[in-house]
Amino acid sequence: MPEKNTIVIVGGVAGGASAATRARRMNEAAEIILLEKDEHVSFANCGLPYYIGGEIAERQKLLVATAELLRKRFRIDVRANQEATKIDRSAKQLAVRDHLKNEDYTLKYDKLILSPGAAPLVPPIENASAPGVFTLRNLADADEIRDHVVKTSARKAVVVGAGFIGLEMVEQLHRLELQVALAELQPQVLPPLDPEMSYPLEKVLRDRDIPLYLGDGIAGILTDERGNASGVKLQSGEVATCDLVILGLGVRPNVQLAKEAGLEIGASGGIVTNRFLQTADPDIYAVGDAAEYRYGPTGEPMRVPLAGPANRAGRLAGEHAASGASAEMPDVQGTAIVRVFEQAAATTGLSVKMARKLGIDALSVTIAANHHAGYYPGAKQLVLKLVFAPHSGKILGAQCVGGEGVDKRIDVIATAMQFGGTVRQLAGVDLAYAPPFGAAKDPVHMAAFSACNYLDGVDLFLDSDANLSGQQVIDVRTEKEVTTNPLAGAADAIPIPLDDLRERLGELDQDRPTVVSCGVGVRAHAAARILRQNGFSDVRNLSGGALVRAWAMAKRTAE
Known about the structure:
Elements: E1 6-10, H1 13-26, E2 31-36, H2 48-52, H3 67-74, E3 77-80, E4 82-88, E5 93-98, E6 103-108, E7 111-114, E8 118-120, E9 133-134, H4 139-152, E10 156-160, H5 164-175, E11 179-184, H6 195-206, E12 212-214, E13 218-223, E14 229-234, E15 239-241, E16 244-247, E17 251-253, H7 256-260, E18 284-286, E19 292-294, E20 301-303, H8 307-323, E21 336-340, E22 343-349, H9 352-357, E23 363-370, E24 381-388, E25 395-402, H10 406-418, H11 423-427, H12 443-456, E26 460-462, E27 472-475, H13 479-484, E28 494-495, E29 514-517, H14 522-532, E30 539-542, H15 545-558
Parallel strand pairs: 1-2, 1-7, 2-3, 7-18, 9-16, 10-11, 10-16, 11-12, 26-30, 27-28, 27-29, 29-30
Antiparallel strand pairs: 4-5, 5-6, 8-17, 13-14, 14-15, 19-20, 21-22, 22-25, 23-24, 24-25
Helix pairs in contact: 1-8, 6-15
């Protein structure tokens, strides 16, 4: 028979609600109490921007599991608007504040699961709390933003922070026909990406006349004579006028409760947990945005504030707390995706810039391909960057940007990473193919083939933003292509169409370091093989060809 113990869960939403329901499934006898300091215990916080923009029309659809459902179906004692304020580990009890009754009480536990989440970052700037300035964490925040737009007839907005939520808010406010500007301290949108991979997102924003203030952080908020937000002052001194400000600057983990209880806080700022989500106190677990998990590409603990890991961690912690056993929490790769109008961008694992920052040796290849067979109507281009270890070929990460099929490619690569996959193994993955869905050589395969060629010395690559001065650069595109779209940052490139290359080898110096480029890298690979087998000893393929080179040089110029 299951043990009749008391499991208290602090915080609902993704981690806490998943923990509560799994605990009940594993232990029918347990007393399960769920404390949530806000009104709603389980809602789709990832859907909030789309509710604000009206793409999700019914508010009720965001309520994943209501308190009533949790009580009736799972016999969980749900206590909304009640906040745990202190943990007494020796007595195994909590101090709880009932915000509705304005009363305090104590609550005993046998097992305690912490899922306190994270709070939006609000910088210490002037007028940060002025009317018209918002952050987005819960349904109440979303309601307030919607009400503000309607009641004030807001026409101009500034979103500060170009991460996932910031980009989603830009898209949705534009959908409401507001004039939107975007400010970001880093010199690119979506900072987790390598710089050149962010360029298509910036382009699609500029194409909609959305001003981008990149590399320019917020210095303060201006107000009108009534004290309402009227503009954002940036560190450069520029002012973006508005009547609505959204602060999307990231989150800070809510770890104060754990810290005051003497639980260990890790280097990334989250609560330290073991593989069963137990903290330094084996009767206390931690999940969600406030917890650290092992990050797959490095093997080190890291906070990964995403809904997927929070749900999975909650499920495992609930099972372990209820039954004393569970599977271990798997590594987390940090897989995420965002839609920005007709473009999507996704990432998993390490970018090249993050690998360099961490001192990890990494190589990369970048390919461009259609998301399904090019001869089938509707094919859209995507660009995929694969990051891998230089000797073992272990996959370290990937980024993908495009109009369709981005999620599929990143999910395939994230799955391979979860099992410690290498680029050689990825090259042999058997993927579903029919013309409406993919290609016989999927973009995933093409990236893996390129990586294998790199490791085997069949084709060496040069980063798309490399300095080409002093090198013999050969552009093997057609004359029309070269004239229409010259290779960026390579004024002295020698134009020789691939089909003419063998006959014109005598025009080239085989002793000079040579770089070959084409539209996206495919023809350049063929050219590199011709050159290397004709006495050219130092030949490299410009990764991503003229397409990604243009992105990279545009980003460099902007910086």
